[in-house]
Amino acid sequence: MIYIIDRFVNNQLHVLANANTIKLLEIIFPEEQKKFIAEKNHSNYVSEILETVNGSVSYEPYENNEYGNGTIASSKRVFNRLKNDFVFFKILFENIAKNNYRDWVFITHIYPASLPVLKILKLLYPKIKVIITIHGEVEYIYYPKSKFNKLIGSLYSLSFKIKNKNLKYLFLTKVSKEILVSDKILNENEILAIELPTFSDYQLNENMKELVNPLKIGHIGSSGKRKNINIFYQLARNLHQDIENGKLNLYIVGSLENDIKEDINPLIIDFVESKTGTSLPRELYNEKSQDLDFSIVFYGPNDFILRSGAAFFDTIAFEKPIIALENRFFKSVSEVSGPIGYLCTNIEEMENLIHDIASSPQKYSDNYLLFKKNMKLYKESLKSEKIAEDLKFQIGSFFNL
What we know:
It is built from 14 helices and 13 strands. It is of the alpha/beta class.
């Protein structure tokens, strides 16, 4: 049995990532039964995507408790999640031990406060094979932006110091392994690293078109201050003449987070009536993403170096060249794929670039077509079969498959 476990993630967050993880495990372990254990609504979304996947995947949904806001509610949430995780994993590990340790445990998301608890519990079950996918919070080891971030980073640092047999961390960028080993945070033999495809089955229209006015530039995915989207609104104000003259359209394709409520203005078109906390239906998300000429992102130099953003891989899926700030992750991708867009040293350079493209789009068409060609080739390298082959090789170097 392959247990695929997502703890305390609700609704659509990580849905494509989990669906594609299951697809990879179907390829790597074709004969094994698989059980996906996740929150009820999340589990339903994943099962809808996997309807077309051959193989045997069963589902064990659970209900997440709601605790509200405030200090007391937050304390209850932390306590109950820690307690529930301890009980859940203890029972699971006991059952696997009774089955002569034949089963595998793939944890696609774990509550950060539960990670040290799991690591300590795992010391009692050294034979059980566990692989934990690590998500974006791990970057708080390096660059916390608040006291809460610093606490999360400390939990990861503590967890990484607890060494377990037959437990590996799965990171979703290749550069993660290089950074963590170089900084002596983890050993090389503790890390698996892939670039997880998060592609849906959406079929693209073939559109190797040249650039024309109005230039369409948009941010794909959920938008908030954690992605520096407040900078996008400032950029729109600076480029208002190009927008008002019909040379440029700016978009946000995705939900708006509450912390940018004060920044929202009509210079950037959104598809949720400028309401925060409103989901964009996937069909509309796909349609509007495909309409763009460029995908724009505002990750800082130290953002998204230890994680992959699902929105970035949606950008790849839709084959949209990027306009971004220089960033170690984008540089590492460009080293593999060739240039897939423009990397700017600062916001002023980005503003000038967008103004120039909007003023003379034909001048940039050759570069644009090259970026799209490289995007397509990079996308080919991220097909599930190729990623599965890579992951199988890495797992096989640590475990007997």
